[in-house]
Amino acid sequence: MEDRYNAYLLRSDEPGGSTGLLAGRTVAVKDNISTAGLETTCGSRILKGYVPPYDAHVVALLREAGAAINGKTNMDEFGMGSTTENSGFGPTLNPVDTTRVPGGSSGGSAAAVAGGLAELALGTDTGGSIRCPAAFCGIVGMKPTYGRVSRYGLVAYANSLETIGPMARTVGDVSTLFRVIARPDPRDTTMQGRPYEHDPEPTVAGRRIGVPAEFFGEGVDPRVAARVEEAIETLRACGATIVPVSMPSMSSALAAYYVTCTSEASSNLARYDGVRYGPGGETARPWHEAFTGVRGGHFGEEVRRRILLGTFALSAGYYGKYYGKAQTARAMVAADFERLFGQVDLLAGPTMPTVAFRLGELADPLSMYLADILTVPANLAGVPAISVPCGTVDGLPVGLQLMGRMFDDEGVIDAAAAYEAEASS
Amino acid sequence: MVDESDVRRIAELADVGIPADVLPTFTAQFNRILEYFDILDTLGDARAGERRLHTVLREDEPCPSLPQEAVLGNAAESEDGFVKAPRVM
Fold first, then answer.
1. How confident is the model over A195-208, as a mean pLDDT?
2. Least confident segment among A36-40, A119-123, A222-226, B83-87
3. Strand, coil or helix: A130
4. Degrees, nearest 5: CA angle A140-A144-A146
5. Are the C-beta atoms of residues A345 and A301 closer than 8 Å to each other?
6. What angle do CA A321, A322, A328 make, to 5 degrees?
7. What is the tens place of the pLDDT at every residue in A236-250?
8. Which burial class, exposed, middle or buried, applies to B78 when counting CB atoms under 10 A from its CB (0-12, 13-18, 19+)?
9. For a disulfide at A410, which of A119, A198, A297, B34, Cβ 3.0-4.6 Å?
10. B contacts of A77 (beta carbons < 8 Å)
11. Are B30 and A308 in contact (CB under 8 A)?
């Protein structure tokens, strides 16, 4: 099938196996996940031509499960963006409305699934990069608990925040793909050895669901809020108890997120100097000049901005003001989740404050950062979160976000399955 | 607040070139983001809480690695089994 959405950077026709949980099913893989023998660029021109000599753990697991990997999907360069417009290889279009962005940074994976080019997809989520495109394209996407899926072979952007996760049209398929990839791996030292072996039970009867007022605050489109409130009413009708709650740490969560991820990025992206992989430098020039030439010429603007922000935030004299304070704010977010999960089993709110933006609409970087306000808290705390479609505004999809306790990915999936079953009945 | 010369200096430290024609816009955007980060100053001197995730340590043990050709295969230039890099001295 023709790729009308620029969802893929590379297409492949691996047949898949005849046995296993994913036998013969097509899976698209985000381009920051290493695939032996298949070019892996992270959406960046600095990695054009890089062919990994090994598979990421999740890719080896896909192959063992019989999956037919059908290509590598477009993304914001190194995962830095919420629209997939920051790709070094052109933007991906939203299959629901091709004048709109698919969200990001896993926009190619979301468009591949929503556009019928793949049954399932792997994305990665550092600050909402699975949930945002899932919401904008009208599919299901899950950010698992940090430490449940191995990051071995994931090209690092912000290690302490990012996770690999499943995307699909239904909660059942998300659960199946999650079952395949959530397996222990000693090569990722942050793995907690908690495989996922759950069959979804579509029920929320007797569960307490908290609704933080801050998730319906300033900047949230009232029409989006209305769809999500209807979805929460549906969960109430399914037997859940809805509890209004508050999450004051939300006020500094976004700043904490951007200071942390840019700091980690400035360190992680230091390795791209064109020497061991990438376009190559001029070896006759002094190294400073040679590296600046390669990096300046091949990194996109947003990547350079985040490297600079991180370099600044970690520099002498500013470390305490930015990075130190960001870690305090991060701990406050984690403490808020812990307090709330003493009172309720799940938290619910919108995934994104708006529907999908028009292409080119978010030209100012800070405006783009602000769109992540509802997704970054789960990454800062490491808790699992899912986005499940809950209707439309002007024909554009809206996502209901459900967040759970650390390692209660099962509970999050059950609640999403309950909503999905009720909404489609 | 940072000025254009600060941005140029940070860009040099990070080996990331910022072309002169975009420097004014880049600096203005940089400052708007830093202004937004100022919200962290309202947190006072509260100490960060302890993370609940623990690093898992193990003994170092030699194990098989990738063949040398596979590792050098992505380098733009290699020589006698080494990656060729720009001059450092």
1. 97
2. B83-87
3. coil
4. 155
5. no
6. 90
7. 999 999 999 999 999
8. middle
9. A198
10. none
11. yes
- The DSSP string of A395-422 is TEEEEEEEEESTT-HHHHHHHHHHHHHH
Q: How far apart are CA A336 and CA A258, in angstroms?
A: 19
- Domain region containing A47: 1-425
Residues A158 and A108 sit within 8 Å (Cβ to Cβ): no
For all residues of chain A together, what is the average pLDDT?
A: 96
Alpha-carbon span A225 to A350, nearest angstrom: 7
Rg (CA), chain B: 22
**Those residues with Cβ within 8 angstroms of residue A367's Cβ, 6 or more apart along the chain or in another chain:** none
Compute the nearest-CA separation of A283 from chain B (Å): 4
How far apart are the C-alpha atoms of B86 and A256, rounded to whole Å?
Answer: 37
The secondary structure of A270-335 as a DSSP string is GG-SSSSSSS---TTSBHHHHHHHHHHHHS-HHHHHHHHHHHHHTSTTTTIIIIIHHHHHHHHHHH
Q: In chain B, which residues have their Cβ closer than 8 Å to the Cβ of A51? A: 73-74
Q: Is the peptide bond before A105 cis (omega within 30 degrees of 0)?
A: yes
Nearest by Cα to A132 from A157, A159, A109: A109
Q: Which of B5, B9, B18, B40 is most worth mutating to test chain A (most A CB atoms within 10 A of its CB)? A: B40
Residue of A182, A201, A203 whose CA lies nearest to A193: A182
Query: Which DSSP state fits A291?
Result: H
- Largest Cα–Cα separation, chain A: 70
Domain ranges of chain B: 4-43
- Phi-psi category of A320—alpha, beta or left, where left has phi over 0 and alpha has psi -120 to 50? alpha
CATH number at residue A205: 3.90.1300.10
Are the beta carbons of A266 and B14 separated by less than 8 Å?
yes
3-state secondary structure of A85: coil
Positive or negative, the CA dihedral A152, A155, A159, A161 is negative
- d(Cα A389, Cα A401) in Å, to the nearest integer? 9
CA–CA distance, A285 with A293 (Å, rounded to integer): 10
At A45, list the tokens. Answer: 């021109």
Do the beta carbons of residue A221 and residue A188 sit within 8 Å?
A: no
Q: How many domains does chain A have?
A: 1
- C-alpha separations of A102 from A113, A374, B63 in Å: 11, 17, 43
Which residue of B lies nearest to A306 if distances are taken between CA atoms? B30
* Cβ count within 10 A of residue A400: 28
Predicted local confidence at residue B50, as pLDDT = 54
Q: Which of A73, A40, A132, A48 is nearest to A356 (CA)?
A: A132
* Contact at CB, A299 and B16, closer than 8 angstroms: yes
Residue with tokens 């002498």: A316
In whole angstroms, give the CA distance from residue A388 to residue A33.
24
Q: What's the ipTM?
A: 0.94
A306-326 pLDDT tens trace: 999 999 999 989 999 999 999
> Could you tell me where the DSSP H helices lie in A344-375?
365-370
